[in-house]
Amino acid sequence: MFPTIPFRMMRLASALVVLTGALVLVAPLSLRSAVLSDKPAVDLLTFYGVTAGAYGLLPFVRRGDIVMVAMWVVLGVGVAPCFVGQELSPPHMFAGMAGVLLAAGPIYIARFRQIAQGDIRFHRRRETEAGV
User: Fold this and answer.
1) Is 12:37 a contact under the CB 8 Å cutoff?
2) Cβ pair 29, 43 in contact under 8 A
3) 76 to each of 7, 46, 93, 125, how far by Cα in Å?
């Protein structure tokens, strides 16, 4: 009756929506002097919120992938002013990285606790038991 969308396409579409939303939220950071105040705390809070939001909105994306994309966005926002003749701002880049790490840290700590308690998977998520 209804056309079905493959689960992989739905995951890809949701990841692209979240990435686009993140870029729209952090794009003003590359135009700091014109749009926002020039305080690194703004970067920290923005990247913390974007990364935490990505973890909440993309439950089926691996936790390491979200951190890597967020760090690439930090790098892109940090390097973007160079294209208009401005210099890099290390405090802002480190604040962005700290925001990403503050959002990702509790997730990795929770996984470490699971492993320490013996909650490990003998089979990888993408493998089937029949294939063993």
Assistant:
1) no
2) yes
3) 30, 14, 10, 32
Q: How far apart are CA 90 and CA 55, in angstroms?
A: 26
Q: Measured between alpha carbons, how far is 50 from 103 in angstroms, rounded to an integer?
A: 9
Pull the structure tokens for residue 132.
């063993």
**Contact, 75 vs 23, CB < 8 A?**
no
Name the token pair of 52.
């935490």
Q: What is the DSSP letter of 88?
A: P
Structure tokens at 69: 């994309």
**How big is the chain, counted in residues?**
132
50 against 1, higher pLDDT: 50
Q: Distance between CA atoms of 115 and 30, rounded to whole angstroms? A: 39
Contact between 53 and 17 (Cβ < 8 Å) = no
Per-residue model confidence as pLDDT tens digits over 43-75:
898 899 989 988 988 888 888 899 998 998 888
Global pTM reads: 0.69
